[in-house]
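So, can you check these tokens?
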Amino acid sequence: MYIARFTKIIITFCAVLVLQHVNAQLVANAGNDTTICAGSTVALNGKAYGGTPPYRFYWAPNFGLSCYNCANPVATLAVSNTYVLIAVDAASDTARAIVNVTVNPLPQVTITASDTVVCSRQQVYLQGNGTVSGCGIGGACPSNNVSPSVGNGTTDQSGSVVAYPSIMGNFDKSCRQQMLYKGDELFQALGGPGTISSIGFFVGIFNSNEYLQNFTIRMGCASMDSLTTWEGSVVTVYYNATGIQPNVGGWNDFAFNSNFYWNGYSDIIVEVCSYNPVTYGNQNNKAQCTVTAFNSYIYSAGNRDQCDRLTTPTLSNQRPNIHFGYCTGNSPANTYQWL
């Protein structure tokens, strides 16, 4: 008897379930805005979350910093500045965050009382006074504000609708511009020291209301004859990541996230920048300008983020007219201590 033995071969197919871990989006955190006195230092506190660790950190601009490629540099500044933290993870993804460092100048103190001889327990009155000579991030603006303008020209920004300059243009991915407003013309319009709570620009030629993403306004005080390169001592007073939509002609005003105090005599630098990484290629809007006797306006545009790059700017004397939301006479409060 022949017995055939059959071997049953069971082939098992195993389905291997591969769980793919999806990292959260990389987020950068530059820490809280801070205020220091002239001559003091402050440590910046950079962090990152999500993405793919480990992280690398870079700060721009790098002036005044103990290191530019570390998470916690020490800043030593004579004037106010806005720093941008760029975090890069292991997958080369990037994220940005900003922090304002406001530098308050030391007050100028005077005592008007003369040396006095008195009898025991006799009263004598001393008179002291302190004035603040600088400008930067300021406090609240009362409701009795005014709305003066600097510039009354009716010339629209030059170039075609796909060319720059454009105060609110969307044809390229990014555009950066700085404007210089002189202290004497500011005094004539504003009337004295006070707090700026908003600014606006007059659109003379309207072509598109497409969003301008990462729309940023920065301001700073200066003393200069003209603009020839980017002025770095500016602080962020307005930022909108989602973006703003230009209005159909006329004034486009922007209420600040952080008000700006002007000392009554310094020149003011105003910077406007936007970066549209996805939606761009629309015709540019053109602002009304006043022709000045000096280079009062510089700009650069391109398909790379211009807002923190030191691209060589184009110089112009056709400066956009500006509209201020302003409250006079509310200088920062002083406290006094006698020793």
